[in-house]
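Recap for those who missed Tuesday's class. We walked through two folding examples back to back. For each one, the amino acid string is listed first and its predicted structure tokens come directly after. Nothing is annotated here on purpose, so try labeling regions yourself before you check the end of the notes.
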Amino acid sequence: MLPSVTAPGSPHPVPEPDPRARPGLRQLLDLLAQGASAEALARPAAEAKAAGADPEELAALAEATEVALRIRRTLSQHRRREAQLTALFDTASDLAALRDLDAVLRAIVHRAKLLLGTDVTYLSLNDDEAGDTYMRVTDGAVAPAFQQVRLGMGEGLGGLVAQTARPYATGDYQADTRFHHTTTIDGAVRDEGLRAILGVPLRVGTQVIGVLYAADRTPRAFIPDEVALLSSLADHAAIAIDGARLLEETRAQSEAMRRAEQAHDQLTDLVLRGGDATGVAAQIADILDAGILIHDADGAELARTGTDPTEPLPPPARAVAASRASGRAVRLDGTWVCAVLAGPELLGSIALTGRPDLADADRLLFERAGVVTALLLLLRRSVAETEDRIRGELLNDLLSTTGDPGSLAARAHRLGIGLDHPHGVFVTHGETAPRHRLLAAATRSAHAHDGLAGTHREQVVLLVPTGEPGATARALAEELGQALAAPVTVGAAGPTTGPAGLPAAHAEAQRCVAALRALGQTGRGGALADLGFVGLLLGDPAGVSGYVRNTLGPLLGYDAERGTDLTGTLDAYFEQSGSLTRTKDVLHVHVNTVVQRLDRIGRLLGADWNAPARALELQLALRLHRLARTG
């Protein structure tokens, strides 16, 4: 045996070279330098033995050969690790250059297959909503069932890796009892013919996003270096996958923003070019492939497209209020609703039908459409307010007794009002509705009938082309009552042609609406001609006042001098069909007081005041007196 020393930096002793063994040692060194195989390194000792070398020389060569083999293994390990590191760096570089998620995943499994040299590599991603992990990409797999398998958390090798975030390996999966076997997973693995499987987690921080696998179709053991290599590749892959996902999300958001901005520009351009609510609704419906309805702040439908025109779809107040409060579109019973706002002011709403599952990008686009619709309604209101002001000023001038008829007719013609055709004047009275709401409803009706509407002498008045004012008044009373959900009384006069007769027609319409209310016809419409003899009398105000004065003069004079109300007592007596008991209840006095007042009335009017013919005259005079006071 040759004496040995320890080489610097080496844990193994190196024998002192025997001078007789130097040619064989030199050959071993040359073979090591050439990277020769283990069989080639054993050749010098064999050749020396065949040449009849003495035992000491052969022992020296044997020990030198053993050292050479250890050096070769060490060099091989270093070269392999260097190759793996190079491959990992190349992989990181390749993955960093990829931008498409599918391309990233395919590159990962293909590089794993090249690095580990296995039959099959594949990758599964976790589905957080479903609570499992599913096969995403394979390389080398042939069985369709295997390429579509899903693993519940904790099921099979992959499900266990996804659940525990730890690598697992098996030399023969079907025979390994450590895993929770299922019929579906075992069948897919059997169809693919896999035996040895290695799985490592894909982690982003502490979150497991999937599993990377390497598998062979023959039993084998995976050494720690292979586990470490696949784990390193999985770490690179997880970062690349996360980056690709973020990039895709950014692209999707950018595309959504670009699409929303493009739609916003299209809609804004449409509005600024004079488009109306119908055009805007059609454009939104085309962009979102849905049905669209636009309502104003009062719930009146302005436009609809893509929905059944016979189906009434009023805006749901609860959804509009929720959208107004949150500033976002909200869903109610499969319909999306977006409040149309100008600051805190509610201008109206948009409803979207036919797409209950609206993606975030389309929801943003729908909300952008709400902003454009607000612009439309503001412009519409501004134009309408200006036009209504001009039309209202014209109506005031037409109903006044001053002004040049020719100039008024020319102004009316410029607004599309042809006064050379018969027109009726209509005075309205909203019993409970506020005047501004009555004016708004009257303005809409006037536009629909090619007329004018406005306020004149604290009353809402319409000027509408018609040859039958009574019938038109009845239609207007019903139309305005439905719009306001409250009774509206409409008095009519006319028809008259040209501006000259309009002031007198207005005065007559005023008397008519007062008569309708006094006669208990609240919420209805008509002309004086529709009121019979009362209408005929009201048509001549001087005759009415003279008739009242001649018939009730003594009572009116007595009440005026003494501050009594014998006129009211007589009216109540006739209203209660001559019943003393009911009369005293209405007047809240004793029955004797009623008798005393009736005696006084008899002395003032004459003993026949209660005779049928005289009573009829008195009742008519009392009714006309009441109408005059109401008017």
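Example two. Treat it independently of the first, because the proteins are unrelated.
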Amino acid sequence: MEFNYSYSGNSRISGNGDRTNMSFAPDVTRSPTYFRGELRQNIAFREAISALHDVVVSDLRFQPKDKTAYKEWAAQRNDLDWQLIATQRQSVTDRLRELDAEMSDLRRRSSERTSEYYKSVRRYFDYLYQKDRDAWFVLDPVITVHPDEVFFECFSQDESSYGRLGASYEVFKNVGDFACGTTNVDYSAALYDEFQKIRTYKSTIFEVDPSGFGVETAGEAAYKEVKIDLPDTWVRGFLQVNSAMSLPAVSFDLHPMDIYNLCLVLRRRKEKNGPRSMKYILKPGEPVRVIFEPWNLEVVCDRSFYQGNKPEEIRVWGRRRLLILERLIPVARKFTVHLLGTGLPSFYVADLHDLSFTLGLSGWTANDWAKAGNFDLMAPRATVDDWTKQKVFAGLQENWLESPDALAKRLKLDRSLVLGALSAYTQAGRAIFDLNKQVYRVRELTQEPLPIDRLRFANDRESAATGFLTKKVVKVDSSSIDTGGTLHLAGTIKIQSQTYKPTLEIDRDERLIAANCTCNWHQQNKLFKGPCEHILAVRMQYQQSLVRL
């Protein structure tokens, strides 16, 4: 999938002893989006924007050692050993040893002569890494200007970590004119080094440069054209993370010192064997406890008490990604943790006074957001006609951000319809759920509409579920709603000689909160990789029956 960007120059930071100007160059092909203000909270912003950079360059995928040279050497030694064994005469053996010693000397001399060349090659690549790391950034960060805040979004290289930095207008003073919208900003690696120079004694001007949108055609304007061919996984991951944020979760607060203690364990110990998980032990009214496996080392968070109604035990993996939060500990008031369940994604929201930093982690590092999450399949899926969808989105655009309840009340629509429409726009990249303020926001990920059929429905299970409905092999055996408003469904699917018995629970927000199936795929994966095709088919069949009624 190819994305085209055009920047009027480059983002830059300039200044003198008492003043710093930080100007981001936006994409001029998109609707005018600009902002200008002077930073009031310099240190907190510096640490937060640096943590966002840590998300972008993060890549914890396993990198196997290159054993090519060793295998070549081992093959040579193996051939030589067989020759020695096959040699019957001592004179031939002695001659082979002489030749082997001579070859070893030649290889040593060759290595000495070429060592400077390889050192130069290494220095060259080190220079590129330090001075021109633009290739490490998959896509320039997305920045959105809203009536109440400015926020950045980015993904890690391994597509398993999501970062969002939100800065309310209280972070700035002398805020000038601004235009709400979403754009990509030119964000080179050199800017990171400049961010480290932000100080409290120097006034810092933050600017999404509006000048790029007022340039007349004169033939002399220099634009930086950027074309990036992105894999579908990157875009799908961006959509999946927003679907995951809207799902129900177990939430609690952690004191910054408790986060420090968790990071300290990860810094001081290195596991060699599994399991490599963190197990949260949550009991109402008691301090949060975290057990690190495989050492069974327990950290008691004496400053953080769980306020939930029932005890929980939730295990999460890919824990070393939490080290991204280290820079935020000195400037954070608290960290709010949102856990979707064992083996499912987790979110850590740092409260930095008037800034907020959200770190979204997939179930584990190798299980990135795009390949095995499919959280859009678990999101609200109420059937909503196109006219209602457009009405809901137009209503959201009026204020740029709003809670589902307030939007449903203002538009005089059923809450489930509003959630279904917002979910569809979230999965289309046109809206985002703000986990910090619990509201939906308008956020156009791209200028051109995304190919939703290619991104959202590129899932074999959903395709198979649709095929079951077409063949009319799906039957809803029972449906009931309990006192809490949760819908319980049970169904039967007969495919040739096989019979499957899926059951599922859907809450009042049309979200899949629990499910089970007798098929082998579900028994092996549960909901860690999303629902199976049989669970999806029963849900779709039930929704179609409501439409017919």
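Answers for example two:
Residues 132-138, 212-227, 368-372 have pLDDT under 50 and may be disordered.
The radius of gyration is 28 Å.
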